[in-house]
Amino acid sequence: MIRKLTDREKTVPATGANSRFFTETLEVETLSPLAFFEAGLSHYGEHRFFWQNADKTVKLVGLGQATVLTAEKDRFQSISSQWAALCEVLIKEEKDIDPVLFGGFSFDPHTRQDDEWSAFPAAYFTVPLFQLKIEKGKTYVSINYITEEPQAAADFEALRQERDRLIHIAQVDEFTFQGKPDVINQTELATDRYMDAVEHVTSHIQAQEAEKVVIARKIKLTFEEEFRKAAALHTITNEQSASYHFGLQIGDEMFFGATPERLVEISKGRAYSACVAGSIERGKTSQEDQRLGEVLLRDKKNREEHQYVVDMITEVFAEFCTSLQVNRTPKLLKVRDIQHLFTPVEGELADDMDIFRLVEALHPTPALGGVPRQKALEIIREEEQMDRGFYAGPIGWADSAGNGEFAVAIRSGLLTGNEAYLYAGGGIVADSRPMEEYAETWVKFRPVLRALGGRLHE
Ligand SMILES: C=C(O[C@H]1C=CC=C(C(=O)O)[C@@H]1O)C(=O)O
Ligand SMILES: [Mg+2]
Known about the structure:
Chorismate_C, 12 helices, Anthranilate synthase
């Protein structure tokens, strides 16, 4: 069942005239993020999130909502200013961890349909009521509370009790994986349309209407019974250890995945991005793996796919940064099922920068959209006839101190009770061939397909 957003959720004002935003942090013994996520099931089971960056130096879990920020029009600017207004009324002590805003943007607000994405607005962010953050070996649990009521102190006492209850459950119960339900059906949706789309895109490119366009498709799984959200996160985090992990739950649905691709990180005034485009399988032996990596590094089609992304991200960084570092040639980025061409980009940010402006400038990179951007988006709308929802969009967090990180939400799927929709695509350039691109999408489906127990296409 798809739950529509309530009016309250759509219109929660970021700040009223008398709003105050309190935060309070407790440092605790090590906690498993998944155990904390699961501890929130009974009371906050419809509003949770989960995040770990690729090197696992930052882990975040959110339970419940201190507030929800959504936006349709001018969505990047709107979320940025709603968050800035909240940070203005933040009351925090030095020992308190900066509260986080977590969420994401859909790939393209112009492709809405009456489909599996109807509970997800074009931008959805939440400040969690209870926030777990693990950073540099330390574990912090914070309460975030936004109120216009004068009796905040009394409310806070009740929240402290609730926080202690959650910590206790997470520490005592740990997370136990109870297995996953069987897949009773696995269907590829509109594969013919996908094959045609790849074909058409190569003709558009030959006619010089575009240079590169990313085309995606989806598959649907049906389970014999409900797939528990924590179980999905458990399997994907264990199976794809080198990737970013994310889960964003709205009502009955959770968008989740394991992506290798950073969109942008801001840390202490520096910005970091990554160009990830161009792909080949992992080898079955280390020699084969190395050989495939070398093939990828030399392959003309893949290098072309990659270079569009490097050019575009470099251009954005040149605009927003006072200094810039980009390698001349790509390296390999290897995750469990696939290896990619990879070029990191970093720079020193010009002063008054906020992460949402950078996300807006970068999204979509040619790793998910194409070149030129607007023409590629038009072709994607026309050819895919599908709402990508949050697949391929930016997902991540920002804090009240101006730090944050967004990943590109690929290798992802939407889990809705007994069903899941999985998405994968690839960059189409002049010499792309439909059958090869189709095979590449199967490799990209693997992380979520494996986590959910679907049939891999090997
Ligand atoms: C569009 C996807 O991957 C992108 C990211 C890395 C490599 C890609 C490629 O080689 O085609 C894609 O541009 C996806 O995983 O669904
Ligand atoms: Mg590709």
